[in-house]
Write a structure and sequence with these properties.
This protein is of the alpha/beta class. The chain has 6 helices and 13 strands. The strands form 3 sheets. It has a 6-stranded mixed sheet with strand order 2-1-3-6-12-13. A 4-stranded antiparallel sheet has the order 8-9-7-10. Bound molecules: ribulose-5-phosphate (5RP).
């Protein structure tokens, strides 16, 4: 089975968790894209849901699929968010933001009673950190913020290169919120809570891709079948 087929499998299972009348959060990325496409098919068959997209890309896809959209101002509490992840561990701690949407993804996940991660088996790790940690920062003061991020990470036991993410044209990648992303190649993050706490103290850091205590469940598809964690 290809990676795309595995992602679709996980998305199919997640779509079966959606019931009429639900208020949904729609994730971002190639796995979430499968979910939005499958959800669109269910909506066209008569399923009645409203959804908050976590990026402009997902908004465009959901609109094209005919999914009714809302905002967290109109609908501040959601029933279920389904989103991908760059990594997840057995305690449902995540690294997200590979697609650059971590800020809206985290706001939407925090507003949801349930957040179910969909992923192929390659995303499951014993210790977070193989995937560089995305850290969203304000463009003003980038050089100083970068130094402060490195120092904060070091206090939490993490060292490694901090690269400014680039767009395909070589310019800095700009998020939907108008910010930049530093990718921290820290390697093993032994204490994600300590790192999250340290990063939160740095002025200029808007948020980071450690999602701790947000995911309530996961559907992970591999050649061996579907593994479900949490609820
Ligand atoms: C975007 C994300 C994505 O969910 C994450 O990067 C996984 O993407 P994909 O499903 O394409 O592997 O956090 O900000």
């Amino acid at each position: 089975m290809t990676g795309e087929e595995l992602k679709r499998r996980a998305a199919e299972r997640a779509v079966s968790l959606v019931a009429d009348g639900m208020r949904l959060g729609l994730g971002t990325g190639s796995t979430a894209r499968h979910f939005v496409a499958l959800l669109g098919a269910r909506v066209r068959e008569g399923l009645d849901v409203v959804a908050v997209p976590t990026s402009e890309a997902t908004r465009a896809q959901a609109e094209a699929e005919g999914i009714r959209l809302t905002t967290l101002d109109e609908t501040p509490e959601l029933d279920l968010t389904v989103d991908g992840a760059d990594e997840l561990d057995d305690r449902l701690r995540l690294i997200k933001g590979g697609g650059g949407a971590l800020l809206r993804e985290k706001i939407v996940a925090a507003a949801s009673r349930r957040m179910v991660v969909i992923a192929d088996g390659s995303k499951r790790v014993a210790v977070l950190g193989r995937f560089p940690l995305p850290i969203e920062v304000v463009p003003f003061g980038l050089g100083a913020t970068r130094r402060a991020v490195a120092a904060a990470a070091e206090r939490a036991g993490c060292r490694g290169a901090l690269s400014l993410r680039s767009a395909p044209d070589g310019a800095p990648f700009v998020t939907d919120g108008g910010h930049y992303i530093l990718d921290g190649a820290f390697g093993r993050i032994e204490d994600p809570e300590a790192l999250a706490g340290a990063l939160a103290t740095v002025p200029g850091v808007v948020d980071h891709g450690l999602f701790l205590g947000l995911a309530t469940g996961a559907v992970v598809a591999s050649e061996e079948g579907l593994a479900e964690l949490g609820r």
